[in-house]
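Budget justification note: compute hours in this period were largely spent on complex prediction jobs such as the one shown. Inputs:
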Amino acid sequence: MKNLIYIAILSGQLCSAQNWFPHSAVPLPEKRWDVGIFQPFRFGVSEKLEYSLHPLLFFVMPNLSIKLSHKDVGSWSTASRHGFFYPTPLLNMLTHEDKFGVISPEFDPIPRLLGLYSDWLMTGSLSPSTYLTIKTGLSAGISFGYLDERSSIDLPLVYHRLGVFYNKWALRLGVDLTGQIAKKLRFLVDGDAHVLPGFDGDLSLEHKGVLIWDKSEHFRLICGYKFVWGRFPFGTQARILPYIPMIETWVPFIDLQWTGTRI
Amino acid sequence: MTARIYKVLRSSPIGLFLFFLLSCEPFVNEFSDLSEAQMYTASSLTTVVVNNNPIVMTWNIRFGAARSPFFADSCGDSVILKKEHVEANMDKVAAKIREIDPDIILLQEVDIFSKRSGYVNQVQYLLDNTSMNYGCFASVWQADYIASDGIGRMNMGNAILSKYELSEAERIQLRLRTDQSDLVKYFYLRRNILKVRIPELDLYAVNIHATAFATDDTKQKHIGKYIEVLSEINTAGGRFVTGGDLNSLPPDCDAIDFCEYDMCSGENFHTSEVEPYHKEGSYFDNFPGEPEILQPLYDAYIPAIDSVENNSPEHFTHAPSTSYEHWEKKYDRKLDYLFTNLSGGWVQGTDSTYQSLWELSDHMPVAAALNTERN
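Corresponding output:
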């Protein structure tokens, strides 16, 4: 049961680990915080600096990123984001025999792994309530020991994100479109590509569609889907997520988010 | 065909929506009672002249693992094999098939794009590296991911390869085990019978890999269904050759308990303080009549290896690692069989149990030539 929880956490948080919603090029205002069950905790340190980390995941996969606002380019806001994640403790917890052993124990222990990434974001207004964000970035995977390629987790979302440790580097590209539908209802659609040149399973394309209900100034509900298509060592695979095995059905992705201001 | 469907779907909004829906393929394929088998063709066809005495072979190739200490069926802890090792093993399997030169092969434990065997399509590999031209495949174990022991993506099954064209290939689902939890059962094997017609020989080929580890009456159900399928063909006047890994002992077998032969270090059996009492897959008296479960096949049809040889060590086909490591016995029981209902039976003197292929699997192939001339 414990391992099932870890797998759910890994799936949800990895799904959002490089999920930039609501990560536009505009940082949170100073002293403002924002957190969700599956979204990272973000805090506006100043008008130009924001940091974020995934609180649930932090204990098994330490992670941190900062977003720095830069000079506008024309009417486009710009920012860079830099971060790291350390997946080794979580991967070692999933490496065991019997049920919920996601990685074979013959690869135990997983070596110390450090993932680094940097992204460039640009956000522009298409209309008073509609924003387009374009993002591109590079990531690097450092292994402080031998990492057997056979230890990969060949599942959508996970394979290409952890693929950076086998391929050493990856390229990320994406586009977000957010807008207002009604006074308290917004939408987000996005598309992202993970490219691992030369890797066996070198490409993943992801698309997300969500509705955001701003119930109040401090609480919102998010509901949607994520579609992923990828090239894997066994061929290509497409899937709508979240998908529940045994019941064999897709269920909408739901997240609860809170926001506030530190006094 | 699938690629064309996807191309059409992606070209329109409704198509896109349907494309998304199609991405809800099951995580684990649970199969219907009767379904079509997957068909394969060799990349390059070999010219064939119809052989009136076609050689038929059955072989459980252990997914190209050869004698590797795979955790689930030996005392080892290996799970994910190196691709180059699997390819090297499959090279040797293909070489032996070319040497024996059968016309029809019934294969069990064949992997297609499974993580544990380096994502090799073993059906296509054998078609392209032997003189076999056509194949069909029926999954026994198909899942996006088996989250147990790190097994990962899995597609293992039964295959029939032939020099001659195949048609009407069917996958017949067998009953699932009842001695497992729902969660284990969901991710576990779904055994089947693979049946195909070979028009040029006016013959059906029927392949089975019966349950190995069930402690309930699942084996009884599997063999019962197998006999029923063969009887249907026979009653309708059809001709067949059949066989596979029945995971059952021949009638009048001298021994039915192999727990001590198969015991791994640290294991203990045959004491009331320890559960289970017998090692799964090593005891052949789990339900009334199990030791004689194959008698109806011997009564109704003609075995390739005569029943007088049932207890002959030179026809034992199963060679677990423990028998050799602990007892210096390479082969300890017969689990693999060939039968036919052809009136001419088998060509005398052509039957063989290829024990010399011990290095290539934990099962030895059985082969013989059919006498297809009608009496």
